[in-house]
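pasting input
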Amino acid sequence: MLNRVLIAEDLYLLRDGLVHLLQAHGFTVVGAVESGPDLHQALIELRPDVSIVDVRLPPTFTDEGLQAALAARKVVPGLPILVLSQHVEQLYARELLADGSGAIGYLLKDRVFNAEQFIDAVRRVAEGGTMMDPEVIAKLLASNARHEPLGRLTPREREVLEAMAEGRSNAAIAQRLYLSDSAVAKHTASIFAKLDLAPSDDDNRRVLAVLTYLNAASR
Amino acid sequence: MLRKVGRGLVILAMITVELPLILATALTLILAFGLGLVPLYPPLVRLVRRTAGVTRRQVTKWCGVEIEDPYLPPPPPPIPQADGLYRYDRTLYKTPRIPMWNARWKWMFADPATWRDFLWLLLDPLVKLALALPFLFLAPHALHAYGKWAAFLLAPTAKSKLVGQVVRLNVVRSQAVDSQAAEMRRIERDLHDGAQARLVALGLTLGAVDQLVDTNPVAAKALLNKAMETSSEALAELRRVVRGIHPPVLAERGIGDAVRALALDSPLKVTVELDLPHRPQPPVEAAIYFAVSELLSNAARHGSADQVTIDISHRGRMLCVTVMDDGLGGADPSKGSGLRGIERRLAAFDGVIALMSPPGGPTTVSMSVPDALPEEYAGGSSRLPRWKSAIVVVGWSLGWLPLFPQGVVAGVFKAFNIDEHEKAWFLALYLSPPWQWPTIILMMCLGVAMYGAALYIPLQHSAERWMAEAHPRRPWFEKC
């Protein structure tokens, strides 16, 4: 059971709320830090199963949390980290996904309101999944609609890929798009083929598909 | 050569205009100030200014001496008060005519440049006559000499330049304050109509939940869901407002990554090239960010462009940004308010924007903001080279040695024959007598030269800065 969580958040109320929420759902909070340097140290020393990190942290109140997370993942590749922020940027999403090892999440802070979905997201990231906020996905769609290789996808396949980038399983995608499980499986296979992803472990391919999606038109 | 002689002759020929004008001026001044026919004064000033203007243009074009207009900017048209009357000093007028006339009269009379023009007009024929022969036989030198003379009285003084600058700064300041106020109003409206309204709705919904929670838990739950939705919407609204005030990426990462984030969000294919050693000042960063954002959305909306290249670099302390797209071109700044807005925003930092958009494309927009980077990125231009600094240091620290002990004091000793046998450490007194005086004088010259060099090198090096910081003291004759 992957349930050792580290929380990095400088606002006391939110930090406390997160601790209670996670404890109520059976997680063990191994640490709650409130500054960038502390976070970096804790990530490397404690190696939590999943960390929930706010982008903006003291002392500089810029992107301290993001930098600490990226630095820690250089030392410990694939360290699961869920980044929370008041705003989402494609730029940051790309930086988080750049190493291609998955186990990364990037969500708006509002998503904490829906406890079930949030806990689900935390679990997925802990298991090595990729969770992108729907708003990131929407921005990506808006800006990459015209470019290859996503241009090759049918609108339906695009919807499936979008849901995949949000970290949903095939079953969840089927439920959301009102499709049968087999139809979703067919769409995902077709997406993998169109994005030239060699057959391999399905989870890994899902991450790669999302990466292709994010790096569309490889600017 | 022949052409230069021709030009000299044309300048000489102006005497035929100047002589009648001098007579007219004398007559008008007597009539205007002696007999009170004041209305004759403004036409005279206009005539003299026109003549001086012709000479300025001739000199700038032919003599290689650039002369700008020195006049103060004309007064703005009078603005009616709330009751529709026009006020000038303590008198109210029904029409703007008299206040306008008064203001223009004051403008013409009080401007020192007017009186410098009169003085020039009076003396110019004499100078021209004196230069008549050189104009024929030494045309290039004579032209240059005439240019210097004309610049002496017709060029702007330090004072008038400063006044012009103050007027321009006033305009820029009021624009900056206006746009700031407009921005504040927009933010207030956005918050009032958006987040604030949603928070009120949220409070109402929660109040309803409070009433229902015991009697009808199902309805209460539905309302709670709605409340959560509303709070999400309020947050989204706030995010949008914050982005309009100061985008978070800009605060977190600076102009480079902020522009990259813009590039990623744009539907176009955008390449960003960045060469900055340091972040510019935050207000400049914000202005440039919003300018680039505006230009990108312009390119996407009007130019039917596919590719955009954004280049951010620096020249010394100046920040240079170029945005180029491969669209259809033909952009016209007079049509949209976007480019005007950028221009106003940049003007607050003395920045300028240049647009090149021939029909058929491509469209290139260059923006530059001087002094946007910290002092240490000034580049080599403003700092003294090491050897020059060495001369300055040696001059200041050792100049006294040849000048006083070896020069002046030795000279006094020699002149008054003080203490014949005690030569002390005066080098000159150890030499044979014919060499003593020359050595003493040489020492004095050396000392003066060392001090002179130490003073002159920094002055000459930063001449431009020195001029800019100089205060006008004798504005009538002091040239800038």
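fyi The longest strand of chain A covers residues 28-33.
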